[in-house]
Every structure is written in C-alpha cells, then in structure tokens.
Amino acid sequence: MIKLSHFEAFNAVMLSGSMTAAATMMHTSQPNISRSISKLESGTGLKLFERVPGRLIPTSDGLALYEEVQRSFVGLSRLTEAAQRIHRTGSGILRIGAIQTLSLSLVPRAIKRFTDVFPQVKLSIQTAHSDVLSRWVREHTCDFAIVSTPDGEEGVERELLYTAEGVCIMHADHPLAARRTITPRDLAGERFITFPQGDPPRLLMDRIFLDANVEVSRVIETSYSSITCSLVSQGVGVAIVNPYVAREYLNGGLVARPFVPAPRHNAIMIFPSGKPLGRPVENFVEILRKLVKEEEKSIGRILWPE
Q1: For the chain, which residues score pLDDT lower than 50?
Q2: So what's the pLDDT on residue 13?
Q3: Mean model confidence pLDDT for the chain
Q4: pLDDT at position 303, please?
Q5: Which of 58, 97, 203, 291 has the most CB atoms less than 10 A away?
Q6: Helix/strand/coil (H/E/C) assignment for every residue in the chain
Q7: Using one digit for the tens of pLDDT, what is the confidence trace for 60-91?
Q8: What is the pTM (predicted TM-score) of this model?
C-alpha cells in the first residue's frame, strides 16, 4: 500500500540528489528512505532511478512522476497555509449587527483595529433597532449583534459590553457650556433634541423631566443620534446622548457636560444560543472589550477638559 510518506521520501531524494542527503532532510535514516523508494516503485510498477555507484539517476518515469508530485506538494503547501490562516483568523465572513448609535461610533473604531490585524476576514455590517437585531441573531442572519434593549425571548445569549451615563451636549458657545454639571432645571426653556415619542430613551428622559417638575416644550425629534449631534453642533439646541457617541463630534464645536440625574445607556452583545462563536467573532468581541475599557478612561477627559 502506497503511503504519503513514500512520496515525501521520493520528493526529498529528487531535491537532494541522494538517499543519504534525503534522510538528513527528513530527519530519518538512509535505510528508511531506501525502503520508502522501493515500496513506491513496487506499488506503482515504475522504475524511478537508475542506480550507479555513488549516485542515483532519475529515469524518465521518475522525472514524470516528480512533476506530478511537485504539483501535489504545491497544493498541499497551499492547504497547509490556508489551515494556518484559518487557525489565526478564522474564515468566511463576519456578519455584525449593531444599533445605529454604535454603528457610527464604537463599531467603526473596532472594525479599524480588526481589519488591521485580520485583513483576510470579510465583514458585513447591518444596523437596525434592537428587536430586529435580536431576531436576526436568532435566525443566524447575524453572527452577533450589539443592542441596547434585548428582548426576553429565548435563542440568544447576552453579555453586557458597557453601561454609561448620558451626557448633555451643546454648542461650545452655549451659556450652559460654562457649567460643570447640567440638571433638568437648567434645560427649562431650551430647545431640546430628543428621540420620538414612545422610544425607550425618550420615555426615560420624559420620566426624568417629570420627576424634576420641568416642562420641556421646544422639542425636536429624531431617531438618529448622529442627526442629534449634528444639530447640536450647529447650535440648534441641546440634547442628552450616549457619551460614546458624543466623543465623535467634539471636534465640531460641540461640548459635553455631566447630566444629573443621568439616563443610562447600555450596550449588550447578543449571540445565537447553542452555536459556536467562531474565531472571527471571538477576535472581534475581544477587540470590543479592550476598546471599551480604553474609552471608559477617556470619557472623563471629555466631560472635564483641562
């Protein structure tokens, strides 16, 4: 029975020119190389070498077989390289889902780091509301997603990525920018940019104003934090937003201050239950965890600039 080791011995002899040199190349003995060549010749019915004193001369059959072996070994080398690449980075495509707030802030920064280290992995990024993302993860349309309010249905596993207190943002020229801390009462009479009626963040802010007995009547509604920050940077009004989003706009004339009592913003990673994460997901999630730890330290510098 012909074995791969017989072809490896043959290849080594052809490359080195002798059985002794081939044995050294393969870290074995010369008799083992000789036996492998004999078994290959008997198994194929081919005479591979003319044996003359002190040397081996490949026959025409030997040369023809060597060409085929070389092609096969190149393919094997590519397969080995592919296996090593998969071991390092994983394979296929990484399908990420994220709420809009994070799709424009934390996720792009994580993707930059990921692609720098794992350029071979293809990426697909989808954004939607938390309930839609949860359904996509359960249906395996996304490999994982980052949501703010995961539903209570089965089929997903959850991990808290971060929880952060909302901050008040305003144009740098706004009078409130001189304050160290903003309260609900400070926003009375201000044009306030917030989420539409019924959205969970809007319900939370409405409760904060109600508890403080503050009425905010001049309201602009938008579902997108990026639009909110753009409007604030134009001096249209003030808003309470996630600090991870606010930091993206601080170079555009926008400043952020602590808001008390602050609404909390959660980022929760969800994964399909009962399915191995895969190396690309594991690598991306690890980058996210490290990035969040780094940015937690920078939030203070955003709120209290020197």
Answers
A1: none
A2: 87
A3: 86
A4: 63
A5: 97
A6: CCCHHHHHHHHHHHHHCCHHHHHHHCCCCHHHHHHHHHHHHHHHCCCCEEEECCEEEECHHHHHHHHHHHHHHHHHHHHHHHHHHHHHHCCCEEEEEECHHHHCCHHHHHHHHHHHHCCCCEEEEEECCHHHHHHHHHCCCCCEEEECCCCCCCCEEEEEEEEEECEEEEECCCHHHHCCCECHHHHCCCCEEECCCCCHHHHHHHHHHHHCCCCCCCEEECCCHHHHHHHHHCCCCEEEECHHHHHHHCCCCEEEEEECCCCEEEEEEEEECCCCCCHHHHHHHHHHHHHHHHHHHHHHHHHCCC
A7: 888 888 888 888 877 666 656 655 655 555 55
A8: 0.67
pLDDT tens digits along 153-170: 778 899 999 998 999 999
Please report how many Cα atoms fall inside a 13 Å half-sphere around the Cα of residue 119, on the Cβ side: 1
Of 272, 291, 263, nearest in space to 113 by CA = 291
Burial call 65-77: b when 16+ CB within 10 Å, e when fewer: bbeebeeeeeeee
